[in-house]
Specification:
7-stranded mixed β-sheet, 4-stranded antiparallel β-sheet, 11 strands
Length: about 120
């Protein structure tokens, strides 16, 4: 059974850091590009960052460039999104997704498996 489970969300203060994890099972993780998305209330889901099977990171959202870093550990079937300098633009539900491809894609629909999300709240 394929599963992608996000964890690490929570409530933080503006300026704080948070590390989200994406734990995968049921498929060959190392063959999949991993993307992170977020969706705030009343807004469309947006692609943030992605990491290829060869560990190349691509940033799709300019607002997170330099603040969010995505890494993967194929031995643990896990990807981690390190977020720093969180601000009032960042509260949302964050999702990870897996795409059976060597390359990334910023489109949610291009991914084969998707998690249920983890909530991030930022207070000033």
């Amino acid at each position: 059974q394929v599963q992608l489970v996000e964890s690490g969300g929570g409530s933080v203060q503006s300026g704080d850091s948070l590390r989200l994890s994406c734990s995968a099972s049921g498929f060959t993780f190392e063959h999949y590009a991993i993307g992170w998305f977020r969706q705030a209330p009343g807004k469309e889901r947006e692609g943030l960052v992605c990491i290829t099977t060869s560990n190349k990171e691509l940033v799709y959202d300019a607002s997170v460039k330099g603040r969010f870093t995505l890494s993967r550990d194929n031995a643990k079937n896990m990807a981690s999104l390190q977020m720093s300098s969180l601000n009032s633009d960042d509260p949302a539900k964050y999702y990870c997704a897996a795409r059976h491809s060597l390359v990334c894609n910023s489109n949610w629909d291009a991914y084969d498996f998707r998690g249920q999300g983890t909530q991030v709240t930022v207070s000033s």
